[in-house]
Amino acid sequence: MKKNPNKKAITKEKEAKPQKIVAELLEISQKREKELQELDHIAKMLVRRDLELSETRKKREKELQELKMVKMELESAKSILEIKVKSRTKELEELAQNLDEQVKERTKELQEKVEELGKMNRLMSGRELRMIELKREIQRLKEELEKYKLR
Questions:
Q1: Strand ranges (DSSP E) for the chain?
Q2: What is the C-alpha to C-alpha distance for residues 81 and 88, in angstroms, rounded to an integer?
């Protein structure tokens, strides 16, 4: 019997086909393995990033809480200062009014003293003028007496 050359080629082809398929499957498997390794690497990076983001989020939340506390303290301090400012302003207004009244009173007292001093001055001036007048009259009378004695 003669062997058919085509049959050999077909047989070789049939035998080569599983080997080819195995080689292709092996290549696909290797590609998948690389892809899985890359995906694993990416997943690990994402987990690290998520952890970092989680830590950052916790830090930011803590900072936010601290800022809220500071804001509340500042608002409280502001309220206290506003109350103190209002109180001090009221005190100053009362003092200013008191000072106005004291100035008016003192001015009135000073005016009364000025008037009193004016009266005293007029009295003393009048007295001095009267003294001068009396001294002149005494002098005139002395002169008359002298003249009278001499006669």
A1: none
A2: 10
Residue 143 per-residue DSSP state: H
- pLDDT, tens digit, for every residue of 16-64? 677 888 888 999 999 999 999 999 999 999 999 999 999 999 999 999 9
Q: How many residues does the chain have?
A: 151
| Cα separation, 32 vs 111, whole angstroms | 113
Half-sphere exposure for 56 (CA within 13 Å, toward CB): 6
**DSSP 8-state code for residue 2:** P
Residues in CB range of 75: below 8 A, 6 or more apart: none
* Widest distance between CA atoms in the chain: 216
Q: Residue 2 — φ and ψ, nearest 5°? A: -100, 140
CA angle, 99 as apex, 97 and 100 as ends, to 5°?
65
Buried b / exposed e over 114-146, threshold 16 CB at 10 Å, is: eeeeeeeeeeeeeeeeeeeeeeeeeeeeeeeee
The span from the CA of 133 to the CA of 150, in Å, is 25
pLDDT in tens, 119-138: 999 989 989 999 999 999 99
